[in-house]
Amino acid sequence: MRGYILRRVLALIPTLIFASLIVFVTIRLMPGNIIDLMLSQNDVSASKQTREQLEAALGLDTPMYVQYFKWLGALVFKGSLGNSLWTNTPVMDEILHRLPITFELGIMALLVSLVVGIPIGVYAALKQDTIGDYILRTFSILALAIPGFWLGTLVMVFPSIWWGWSPSVRFIPFSQDPIGHLLQLALPALILGKAFSAITMRLTRTLMLEVMRQDYIRTAKAKGLSVGTIVMRHALRNALIPVITLVGLQAGALIGGAVILEQIFVIPGMGLLLLEAVGSRDYPTITGVFLVFGVAIVFINLLVDLSYGFLDPKVRNR
Amino acid sequence: MSKPLLQVRNLTTKFGNGPGAVTAVNNVSFDVDAGETLAIVGESGSGKSVTALSILQLVPDPPGRITGGEIVFDGIDLTKLNEDEMRAIRGNRIAMIFQEPMTSLNPSLTIGLQIGEPINLHKRLPWQKAYDKAKELLDRVRMPDARSRLANHPHQFSGGMRQRIMIAMALACQPKLIIADEPTTALDVTVQAQILELLKELTRETGSALILITHDLGVVARYADRVCVMYGGKIIETASALDLYAKPLHPYTRGLMASIPRLDQPAGLRLVPIKGQPPNLAQLPPGCSFNPRCGEVAERCRRDVPELMKADDKHMHACWMAPHV
Q: Which phi and psi angles does A171 have, rounded to 5°?
């Protein structure tokens, strides 16, 4: 098992090098480079000399591959992701500061989706083709079809028009006010988890229908077990294995959704950091954020693969 | 004589609704005495498995449902019980062993849990005691190294071993009746005999009655006290196993006998298959369902449906022509 984890982590390295290379290059090919941006902000007349001075100061005067290897060297040997081109503070510090917030949002959204999706999926499967099943399936399609950014905007706008209430745009840290903090994250987590819960519900329903037709469920019925015990002890465990896979596959979508919702709800997480960095063409920050996202997605999928061992005894005994 | 343990009277089980409905079990009646082994024999689709599932009220509904008749077990009509009352009987007083040992055990639960489950449920024993009982049961079905195997999962056992586990599970609450639905069909021939011997021996020890569903007349001869032969959802002949072999009365039963090899036949004799196909239950022919395939068919067979008639005290058949042949 330890060898397996080690192999998986080692396989991560080429993936991340490739990903960082793509991000590193494409971000620099984006129209509107940082020098123009800085000069226009400071209202300095852009003489050729000032441009060159600024480029040299920011380390952008060397060829791109030199910049890349410098960046890679700093990462490997010093664990540094470089400094922000605007504030000159270490990107790593900023990311470590922001990561827990996004992580929290993602976990909350995931919890929402599982807590809502799995029980409803089980219910719909047990009540297959009844009114309840149809209503829940219709709602799940609706939840899938409504875009999160649109719903997020509505939630920001309408309550303030109707009741003069709007979610706080000032971030409340957990250490200051734990309840206020969780409440602040609850709305974006609900919206972020909504589409995912609809997918979870549909998958759970399908898998439960499949599992409930299995011979071993008939055996369980022949033992005199109640529907509740059959579902909880015999069916759910076997049905949940693909649902866990889905969690891993959706990790990327969850991060993408968090970027947008953090912007709408003004939550200072990785998403907001990324958006600001892209807007200001802060190359090291952008590259750093993407690298961390990549590592996160790969690790989530590794965890998913490891969790099969707990759910499926055939995998465990191998 | 005391009352039989199980009395099935005019049981009818249908699948689907309206004109497309299929009558899988049609007006079937039989008794099972305490401790005896009754074999129900027939081809695929003859209604024998549905009969078994009907007794436990496990026919998948929809589309299936019991539309008529009584199933009186130990003085209680099972068709009148609600689901909770029925659950108290399943696995406790009537247990079932299924055909497919490979898929009938839950792949993600240990066999200790699966065998202990009915004990924990019906006898209200705590899990630790239920596991101890499960270990004893595994010993009784001759599972080597029973204690340590309790923690194993089904994929770590062979088909024959899994069927032993199924038997242990069925015996868990010392049921008065065990229904075994083709318990050996999916197994190797050598293992088949072992499993049936074990089943027979254990039911004799516990005094449980056994309904043995099979399509194998060889099994019937060796293990059953009495036999019901089913065709097209009906019982067409019933007798003691000895009687049935000595003088099969229904042409279908005789056809089945002729289609299996026997040691007492002269060498070189060819087996005679029953010509034609088993009937489509949705389109049964008028009169006797067997008439299109019957070698002794008469005018009356195509017109009137034969009900079970008495040949003697214990031997009944549903054939218009039988008394004359």
A: -70, 135
Helices A283-311 and A236-265: crossing angle, nearest 10°? 160
Q: Which domain holds residue A268?
A: 91-316
- Is the bond into B62 cis (omega within 30 degrees of 0)? yes
- Residue labelled with tokens 């005679």: B272
DSSP, res B155: G
B107 close to A (CB below 8 A): yes
Are B121 and A238 a contacting pair at CB < 8 A?
no
Total domain count for chain A?
2
User: Tens digits of per-residue pLDDT, B119-133?
Assistant: 999 988 999 999 999
Give CA–CA dist A308/B7, Å, rounded. 48
Residue A145 placed within a domain:
yes
A219–B58 C-beta distance less than 8 A: no
Q: Do A215 and B92 touch (CB under 8 A)?
A: no
B contacts of A218 (beta carbons < 8 Å)? 58, 98, 104
Cα(A22)–Cα(A29) distance, integer angstroms: 11
- Angstrom distance (rounded) from CA A260 to CA A147: 11
The shortest CB-CB distance from B58 to any of A221, A225, A313 is to A221
Rg of chain B over Cα atoms, rounded to whole angstroms, equals: 21
Closest approach of chain A CAs to the CA of B309, in angstroms?
34
Query: pLDDT of A93-145, one tens digit each?
Result: 889 989 988 988 988 999 999 999 999 999 999 988 889 899 998 988 888 88
Q: Which of B172, B201, B171 is nearest to B37 (CA)?
A: B201
DSSP code at position A194: H
Per-residue pLDDT of chain A (318 residues; tens, 9 = 90+): 777 778 878 888 888 888 888 888 888 887 777 777 777 776 666 677 777 777 777 777 788 888 888 888 888 888 788 888 788 888 888 899 899 889 889 889 999 999 999 999 999 999 888 898 999 989 888 888 888 888 888 888 888 888 877 777 778 887 788 888 888 888 889 999 988 899 999 999 999 999 998 999 999 999 999 999 999 999 998 888 888 888 888 888 888 888 888 888 888 889 889 988 888 888 888 888 988 888 888 888 888 888 877 777 777 655
Mutate to test the interface with B, among A223, A230, A231, A232 (most CBs of B within 10 A): A223
For A:192-231, CB contacts with B below 8 A are: 214-216, 218-226, 229
Check CB contact under 8 Å for A224 and B89: yes
Q: Which amino acid is at A234?
A: H
Q: Does B90 touch chain A (CB under 8 A)?
A: yes
Find the CATH number of the domain harbouring A106: 1.10.3720.10
| A114 to chain B, closest Cα gap in Å | 21
| A28 belongs to a structural domain | no
Q: CB-based contact (8 Å) between B280 and chain A?
A: no
Torsion, CA B7, CA B9, CA B13, CA B19, rounded to 10: 180
Contact, B136 vs B202, CB < 8 A? no
Phi-psi group of A59: left, alpha or beta (phi > 0 → left; psi -120 to 50 → alpha; rest → beta): left
Q: What is the pLDDT of residues A167-192, one digit of tens each?
A: 777 788 877 888 888 888 888 899 99
Domain range spanning residue B215?
A: 6-93+177-190+206-324
- Asked if the structure places residue A53 within a domain, the reply is yes
- Is A193 within the bounds of a domain? yes
Query: Structure pTM?
Result: 0.80
Shortest alpha-carbon distance between residue B110 and chain A (Å): 9
Backbone angles phi, psi at B14, to 5 degrees: -115, 155
